Give the backbone structure.
Amino acid sequence: MTNMLELKNVNSFYGNIQALYDVNLHIDRGEIITLIGANGAGKSTTLMTVCGVVQARTGAVIYEDEEITKMPPNKIVAQGICQVPEGRLIFPELTVQENLDMGAFMRSDKAGIARDMDYSFELFPILAERRKQPGGNLSGGEQQMLAIARALMAKPKLLLLDEPSMGLAPLVVKQIFDIIKKVNAEAGTTIFLVEQNANLALKIGHRGYVMENGRIVLSDTCDKLMANEQVKKAYLGL
Ligand code: ATP
């Protein structure tokens, strides 16, 4: 079995409003999968359906051979799925170090936690410099780094990233995407990346899915998607 995550004919709703229609996708262990699409296409809803914040009304979410469709979010996190939500949502009053500690709240392996804290500071040296400062004092890019580092402190097997580039300067975005690649390559963390910035997302992903109006309309390797005329026109501005 290589499938880490699979969505089978998933339909998700907000009350009576249907946001996802028969979504099928799969993620293999060790992959970086990108999901691209316009504003409101259903990308965030897909991530929220994976982590249980929105429960699929019909269809199935299967993680490591176990159905998690109706599992509460806290149990899903305990299985090794961690989300960095859109808008980052760090704790502004807590210091950088305390934010990172919060990420490890479900763990009790002190040595492992210390090791991962060191690894976070190695990935993001700026966070080490600012470890005693309140999270709210950091710049937008630094807060995004903190949100990712905090998620990594949970030692996830599958990391869900919702629009990590949002509102950030291109140089900072590049830095963050380089680190996402590094975490995937070094720590073997499987990554499910949702992005409106298709140019960037398709450059770091192995495979990608394109979503329109709650439906997956295309899926392929990122190289092939980048060469696809439809994708070029609609998402790459070419
Ligand atoms: P964005 O990049 O803007 O976040 P998205 O692709 O992530 O877009 P979703 O946020 O998943 O899209 O939204 C999918 C659809 O569900 C949209 O039509 C949106 O209006 C609707 N929607 C999202 N959240 C809610 C909610 N809490 N209540 C009702 N409808 C919602």
Notes: The pocket of adenosine-5'-triphosphate is lined by residues 14, 17, 19, 37, 39-45, 86, 196 (CB under 6 Å). The longest strand covers residues 3-14. Residues 1-80+202-238 form a domain with the Rossmann fold fold (CATH 3.40.50.300). The first helix runs from residue 43 to 50.
